[in-house]
Amino acid sequence: MWRIVVVCLSLLTAGTSSAQSVIRLARIADIPDQYVGGEMLRAVYAKLNIKLEFEDVPGKRALALSSSGELDGEIQRIGTLSRDYPTLLQVTPAINYIEPAVFTTKLHFDVDGWNSIRNYSIGIVRGVGSSEAGTRGMDRVTATTGIENMIRMLDADRFDVMVTDLFSGLVAVRKLNLQARIYPLSPPLERINIYHYLHERHRDLVPKVGQVIAQMQASGELAALREALVKQVLSAP
Predict the structure, then answer these.
(1) DSSP-derived 3-state class of residue 109
(2) Is 2 helix (H, G, I), strand (E, B) or coil?
(3) How many CB atoms lie within 10 A of CB 233?
(4) Rounded mean pLDDT, 55-71
(5) What angle do CA 87, 143, 35 make, to 5 degrees?
(6) Of 12, 93, 127, 187, which has the most beta carbons under 10 Å away?
(7) Residue 235: pLDDT band by 50, 70, 90 thresholds?
(8) Is the pLDDT confidence value at 6 over 50?
(9) What share of the chain is helix, strand, coil (3-state, %, to 5)?
């Protein structure tokens, strides 16, 4: 996990009461974009004098914990999550976005949406909703336990391509020192807005968090924070 000190977060939390409330969110383990989204939310909740804690778990386990109420919610998920998990309430506007991208070791073609990979064998991370939705109905899809496991399987030619968000894929491939062999194809499959979710017992908190997100978006503060976090993760040794 990435341990990045962000000065602006310290400033945001300075002077808050020692009696802060605490919200515990599921965070999909070893997904860089989940780290970035979590730190963005930390800044949002700091304005409400609420402390965030994260539980790092696999994607499916995260949904089991958050939808049952054992945890208080999800950092960020696709916009249709509440359809399958009605106990999780969407906070609007979107907190972040992802760009699912195709990574490979030997293929070269221009990506033109999800159908352009239909005829290949594909690796995805189990529990990542955007990848599961995009590849639904395709014949040769392997769901892996995590992004690093998926990258190693691609490196071993277990499938032709893998799909993960572009930012997380670049970070994880570099972490495994496989950037000379594994590369992304262009353009990304799509850009997807992703939303923060809270368990229904926090129904009263949903509009308050949404209002802060909207204010931080309007001021440019949220975009600047995301850019700083992404830059720091990509440049970390």
Answers:
(1) coil
(2) coil
(3) 19
(4) 95
(5) 60
(6) 127
(7) confident
(8) no
(9) 40, 25, 35
In angstroms, the CA 48 to CA 56 distance is 23
Number of helices followed by number of strands (H, E) in the chain: 9, 10
- 19 CB-contact burial (10 Å; exposed 0-12 / middle 13-18 / buried 19+): exposed
Residue 66 DSSP code: H
The two three-digit tokens of residue 45, written as one number: 């909740």
- Residue 187's nearest CA partner among 136, 121, 117 is 117
pLDDT, tens only, 174-220: 999 999 999 999 999 999 999 999 999 999 999 999 999 999 999 99
Ramachandran assignment for 73, one of left (phi > 0), alpha (psi -120 to 50 degrees), beta (any other): left
d(CA 102, CA 185): 6
Hey, what amino acid is at 40? M
Residue type, 63: L
Element (H, E) at 46: helix 32-46
Q: State both tokens at 211.
A: 């209002």
Q: What is the pTM of this model?
A: 0.78
**In the numeric block, which tokens belong to residue 106?**
């030997």
**Position 8 confidence tier, pLDDT thresholds 50, 70, 90:** very low
Distances (CA, A) of 12 to 40, 179, 226: 12, 36, 15
Say whether 67 sits in a helix, a strand or coil. helix
Tokens of 81: 């999550």
